[in-house]
Structure formats: structure tokens, C-alpha cells
Amino acid sequence: MYNLVSFAGIFVLMAFAWAFSTNRRVINWRLIIWGCILQIIFFASLMAVLYYAGIMSWLVKIFAKIFTKLMRVSGAKGAFSGNPCLPHDSLGCRGIFQRRINIIRTVIS
Q1: Whole-angstrom Cα distance, residue 8 to residue 3?
Q2: How many Å separate Cα 2 from the centre of its chain?
């Protein structure tokens, strides 16, 4: 489901760009569509190469070490609990959305 939301976000971003454009007639939609298709192909190819070469697991381990050093919390605890900078509390299933908002706030600030 989240992948569909991210995929739809590309089109929402293009719709906003089109809506706020001053000259909508000069937009080359063929170029934009081909650019999106190539971006998806290159990303999928890159992820496949990184995964099969073992680089992706190495990157995840490095990220986990950095996250643990900087935030003093493991990657899983930081992603699935409340804001890592605040005391942890159990929010239950209804708090999943709030946890993700707290993570976004932490990353942005």
C-alpha cells in the first residue's frame, strides 16, 4: 500500500507543478513520462545490483551503526517506537501513525 502512495506521489507532484505553471501549453508531457519511466527502470536496476552484490546489506549495517551512535538507540527501536529523543512509551497499534510523525519530525529537525 505504501508503495502505491509513493508512486502516486510522483503524479501528485507533477499535478502541482502543472497547476502552478504560468505557461501550461509548453509542457512536454512525452518527455516527462519518459523521464519517470527511465527513473523507475534505473532505480530498480540499481537496487537489484546493490542487493545481489551484497552492498545493500553492507549499507544497512553502516546506517544502523551511525543511527545507533548518533541517536543512542537501535534502528528498529528508533523506527517503531516513539521519538528517539524523548522517553519511550507504548502507544499500541493506534499509535503507529503518531510514531511515524515523530520520526519525520526528528529527521527534519
Answers
A1: 9
A2: 10
Interacting residues of 102 by C-beta distance below 8 A, sequence separation 6+: 82, 83, 86
- Whether pTM exceeds 0.70: no
Which has the closest alpha carbon to 104: 83, 88, 77, 90? 83
Domain locations in the chain as residue ranges = 1-53, 54-109
What's the pLDDT tens digit per position in 32-88?
889 989 988 998 898 888 888 888 788 878 877 887 777 676 666 655 555 445 444
Dihedral over Cα of 45, 46, 47, 49: its sign? positive
DSSP string, 53-91: TTHHHHHHHHHHHHHHHHHSS-HHHHHHSS-TTS-----
Going by C-alpha positions, the residue among 40, 12, 15 that lies closest to residue 27 is: 15
